[in-house]
Design goal:
Length: 501
């Protein structure tokens, strides 16, 4: 179905792909794996017409092709679901699904009713309970991901590229997606599947291709390999188990939340969060678990002064009550937030790596009212070194970095503000197994230096590895609290599926 022949691609200072040759059979699900920066997304962008300037040849059904854009690729039967969402937030779900391919009435007028009907049918296929008329900006990341999938399905493609499609989905949504994938395979659709999650790869793939540093390492039939061999091929070494040392010794209370509630105007449930109370201590990592819509992100937004409405209840920082109405107030008080949506809420895409790191601490680089480039460079380079950000230099475009290195840059930005409390919303989303281990160790180190950390994650093993305590939310209410010794996946899931009264 697809022949990739000696493909190479170079960005300024980075060789993203080097002489990659690969064949994809019709109707197979072919997994492409590798660390962040291995070249997976670059290869998929060439296949889908996003990147048009490259060396080598691409053949589709034995015919030489060179797409000049995504419309060419879609016309040839190829569509892609990007890891970083590409939706227009001001438009409805239906308008996004049919963007550029709007249905028309007899005289050429746009047929919104027909699009909403078709979109509704697609969302039903995905078992997604979202109104086709709802604006995308009102949806959480997981629902936005499903809109992307519906958009790809609407094209009725022969070849579907999925770049980390489950990165923002809960376990139940992942299971739902897998059912959709199984139906697509029964229709004969060829699927290229990028994922860092070995359980997904071995659940779905017919064959697995490993990329490392832009080069093809090996292609293996799934039945002839195992997760240990594949991860070894990905990184060129064995992935060691993450040892975070002995049990931490939390200090005094740095953050206390009392009866926190967040109104939900116009919704039948009335409250996004209701009567949440807990404490966070210095040198403690507190996990927040829950299914999609449980209120994990909303809780962090309340603590950071970025919630859609003002919360009720009390928030105490170092024993003093605070009421943040803007993130700038939270930053000055010593609270930092790394958001779950890196592209939309975390990065300044037009700026360099260095500028993205120092954007919150420019005041520290000012001398006599003028910005000191030397000081700014020193701050940025200190973060690149401390967090091992893989970049050709701080003057590189932030968009040239892999997803995992972009995440390190954002974390580094907030570390420069010297926070007392660090809020991490699904921080390893879209990050490979090696980089995850680095981030785990970094969080452990920061915690040991006196920070109080709150982390959410849709991956329960991650919370069990990292956290001293885990709080569980269900429909905006606190339904469970477990120490490291008490917590198990089963107990957390039982609490996460309790219905609030």
């Amino acid at each position: 179905m697809i022949s990739i022949e000696h493909i190479s691609k170079r960005f300024p200072g980075v060789l993203a792909l080097a002489d990659v040759t690969l064949a994809i059979a019709a109707g197979e699900l072919h997994a492409v794996v590798g660390e962040n920066g291995a070249g997976k997304s670059t290869l998929m962008k060439i296949l889908s017409g996003v990147i048009t300037d490259y060396e080598g040849e691409l053949r589709l059904r034995d015919k030489l092709v060179h797409f000049l854009g995504t419309h060419d690729a879609e016309a040839a039967g190829i569509s892609i679901i990007h890891q970083e969402l590409n939706l227009v937030e001001q438009l409805s779900a239906a308008a996004n699904i049919f963007l550029g391919r709007e249905k028309r009435k007899f005289l050429g007028f746009r047929d919104d009713r027909a699009m909403e009907k078709a979109a509704g049918e697609l969302l039903v296929q995905l078992e997604c309970h979202v109104s086709p008329r709802q604006l995308v900006r009102e949806l959480r990341v997981g629902d936005q991901q499903l809109i992307e999938i519906a958009k790809a399905l609407s094209l009725e493609t022969d070849i579907l590229i999925m770049d980390e499609p489950t990165s923002a989905l809960t376990e139940s949504e992942v299971a739902r997606l897998f059912r959709v994938i199984d139906r697509l395979r029964q229709r004969g659709v060829t699927i290229l599947y990028i994922s860092h999650k070995m359980d997904e790869v071995f659940r779905l793939a017919d064959r697995i291709t490993v990329l490392r540093d832009g080069r093809l390492v090996k292609t293996l039939p799934r039945k002839d390999t195992n997760a240990r061999e594949v991860t070894h091929l990905m990184v060129g070494r064995e992935i060691e188990s993450v040892d975070l040392g002995g049990q931490r010794q939390p200090g005094e209370v740095v953050l206390e939340v009392r009866n926190l509630s967040l109104p939900w105007t116009g919704h039948a449930r009335a409250w996004r969060l209701r009567d949440i109370s807990f404490q966070l201590r210095r040198r403690e990592i507190l996990g927040i678990a829950g299914l999609m819509g449980a209120g994990r992100t909303e809780l962090l937004e309340c603590l950071f002064g970025s919630s859609p409405e003002l919360p009720q209840g009390r928030i105490l920082l170092d024993g003093q009550e605070v009421k943040f109405t803007h993130p700038a107030e939270a930053r000055r008080a010593g609270v930092a937030l790394v958001t779950e949506d890196r592209k939309r809420l975390g990065l300044f895409a037009q700026m360099t790596v260095g500028a993205n790191i120092t954007i919150c601490t420019l005041a520290e680089t000012v001398r006599a009212g003028l910005l000191s480039r030397r000081r700014e460079r020193r701050l940025a380079e200190s973060i690149v070194s401390k967090l091992n950000v893989r970049t050709s230099g701080i003057e590189s475009a932030i968009t040239s970095l892999s997803g995992g290195n972009q995440q390190k840059t954002i974390i580094g930005r907030w570390l420069l503000t010297k926070p007392k409390v660090l809020l991490l919303d699904d921080p390893t989303r879209g990050v490979d197994v090696g980089a995850k281990a680095e981030l785990y160790r970094l969080m452990n180190t920061l915690c040991g230096e006196g920070l109080g950390i709150i982390v959410t994650s849709s991956e329960l093993p991650e919370l069990l590895t990292l956290c001293d305590r885990i709080l569980v939310l269900c429909e905006g209410r606190l339904t469970g609290e477990f120490t490291r010794q008490e917590a198990t996946e089963q107990r957390i899931m039982e609490a996460a599926t309790q219905r609030s009264s």
